[in-house]
Amino acid sequence: MKHPSLAQYPLVLPDYQLLQVLHESDNAIIVLAQAPDSQQVVIKRFKFNASQLEKHLLDEFLMESWALGLLDHRGLVRPINAGLVAGALYMIMEYVPGKTLRRQLSLMPHPSLKQALQWFTEITLALGEIHSIGLLHQDLKTSNILVRNDDSLALLDFGLETRLLVATGFMREDEIYCTPYYISPERMMGDPPDERTDLYALGVILYELLVGHKPYESPSLSELLKKHALTPIPKLPTRQYAYQPLINGLLAKFPENRLQSTESVVRLLQEINKDIPTQHEW
After folding, report:
1. Highest-scoring range by mean pLDDT, 29-33, 68-72, 102-106, 203-207
2. Deepest in the core among 148, 170, 226, 256, taking most CB within 10 A?
3. Considering only CA atoms, which of 92, 98, 99 is closest in space to residue 31?
4. Residue 203: what are its φ and ψ, rounded to 5°?
5. Residues near 211 by Cβ (< 8 Å), separated by ≥ 6?
């Protein structure tokens, strides 16, 4: 397959037939390919020169990819393999047909309450699987969540490569590797991420699912970041106000005031739902 990006950043895997470039970012090229068993897979080819990496960083990346691949959870796009060939670091993942949740919400900005809460629960449980093996997502957002043809969700684009981007000079150590609409206040201050950082992004997604837009918006990056840090947590409309404690627990400005785990998120959601006789539709 001929493509300008692959000419600049070649990837030679003899047993795989490269079919189509699906997406390209500053850091990687995403390619649809046919595996030796004739199944379609997705290959993420990173743009940095991985041959310059220290061995322990490369080993950590490969081990974390392997650990994620062992998680048997339908809410995660499963890594199949990862490796290094001619300086090119790659990850092979299962191919999940469908559209991103971001695209889905642009077509249907107000899903039913039942659907919104179902999606939120699926995202939370999948995130919990990642946290259960000591990893973080670090870039949780609607464009990193796929909606399958049966409307179930799958998380992708885990932040395994963050350390590698710093080590190869693709990203400064003080640079924030996430999306401004989903960034937690502590990350803006340069604090290291932890599970609660992911939970803040989860809260942004919940608000987006319930209301139809993000809790903090601005055409100015500096103003947007200021809103995350200083603007009070927005109130849900009356018809969804029962879920305000969940929003408050996820979007708390200080991580110590936030819900501390995906398990606590699920428990609070169950408590709220228990007190609501019937979830009305929008």
Report:
1. 203-207
2. 170
3. 92
4. -65, -40
5. 236, 237, 240
